[in-house]
Amino acid sequence: MERNLYGYARVSTIDQNLDRQLQQLQEHISDKRYIFTDKASGKDFNRKSYNTLVGTEDTAPLLHEGDILLITSLDRLGRNYIEIREQWEYITKKLKADIRVLDMPLLDTSTTTDNLDKRFIADLVLQILSYTAEKERENTRKRQRQGIDVMPILDGKRVSSKTGRPTGRPKAEYPDHWKEVYADWKAGNITANKAMETLELTRTTFYKLVKQYQ
């Protein structure tokens, strides 16, 4: 079975440079037509070149069974390990293509001998990385929560021990004549749009103040 080797490189913004990734990929892929690039955030997978490789609901994938997708690092597949795992499983199990990660040799499913063992090791490493990343996120949230819990409270708001300033967003201030306009609106004498116009408030701010006031 013929195996094609494709490379994929991505950076998160148009200002970032792809050169380092391209240089690494070109050491393995001489034909640049087989290297695909995106300058787009990993927050979603609406990426033209990536979608060309893996396909969409409307287009067939370029990757076929036995083909190899070469990436420089695991985070080129997505912004977090949940998304990365989903893409990993889709490529290796649904498309039955292989993935090789250059900066992590254990993450390589493309070995032709003992392929089952190789896939098992790669999947196991990915699971461990996912678990480690999730635990780190949990610990970070726990530390943040602990830091917030020990903050002193002043006028109903927690105050940062470091800056001495209240934390969180400041409450929106009520404009002049709020009580009168609010009363007219609640009584049905004026519409909400008229109240917003009179108070010179946007719809979002108006209803935020209403919720606060109630």
TrEMBL record:
- What CDD domains does the entry give? SR_ResInv (cd03768)
The cross-references to SMART domains, in alphabetical order and at most eight, read:
Resolvase
This protein's superkingdom? Bacteria
Which residues are catalytic? S12
Give the InterPro entries listed for this entry: Recombinase_CS, Resolv_N, Resolvase-like_N_sf, SSR_resolvase
Q: Which residues form the Resolvase/invertase-type recombinase catalytic domain?
A: 4-155
A single GO molecular function, which one? DNA binding
Q: Which UniProt keywords apply?
A: DNA integration, DNA recombination, DNA-binding
Q: Which GO biological process entries does UniProt record here?
A: DNA integration
Family that this chain belongs to: Belongs to the site-specific recombinase resolvase family.
Q: PANTHER family, alphabetically?
A: DNA-INVERTASE FROM LAMBDOID PROPHAGE, RESOLVASE HOMOLOG YNEB
Q: What is this protein called?
A: Recombinase family protein
Its ancestry begins with: Bacteria, Bacillati, Bacillota, Clostridia, Peptostreptococcales
